[in-house]
Design goal:
Elements: H1 2-27, H2 29-36, H3 43-63, H4 71-95, H5 98-106, H6 113-134
Helix pairs in contact: 4-6
């Protein structure tokens, strides 16, 4: 029974991990981030950090590991988490053509679309912070 559960857990993890990687590749988060920040030479570094962070986050959640690094590290990690979620949500909206469709239906002038995008990103980051504070 333990062998079955072990194989089931490993195969489920591989499937979920493959799905996450497929979504990140489809969205193109890493190339887009490097394009926006003019740091195309760091794409391999960004990809490596993304894989390492995902792996360590999975290990820490499975093993119930807690790090008490102080308030400053919580602020830094929260900012990094917010930036990642902001890029992820903006990538999703870009893929689904959400913003152009909504702007046409609501008849929002093109000049204001950058404010719509910025407000979506700020809302996602603030929502992440509030979610972390409440939990």
């Amino acid at each position: 029974m333990k062998i079955f559960l072990t194989l089931f857990g490993i195969s489920s993890g591989i499937m979920v991990g493959s799905g996450v990687v497929a979504i990140l590749i489809l969205i193109g988060i890493v190339p887009r981030m490097s394009q926006v920040s003019n740091t195309k030479e760091f794409v391999p570094f960004y990809e490596m950090i993304l894989v390492i962070g995902t792996f360590l986050g999975g290990i820490m959640s499975l093993q119930d590991i807690h790090l008490n690094l102080g308030k400053f590290s919580v602020i830094i990690s929260g900012l990094c988490y917010g930036v990642f979620l902001g890029f992820l949500s903006s990538g999703l909206t870009e893929i689904m053509d959400y913003i152009p469709v909504v702007s046409r239906r609501l008849k929002i002038p093109v000049i204001y679309l950058k404010y719509v995008i910025i407000s979506l990103l700020i809302g996602k980051v603030l929502g992440s912070f509030l979610g972390r504070l409440i939990i």
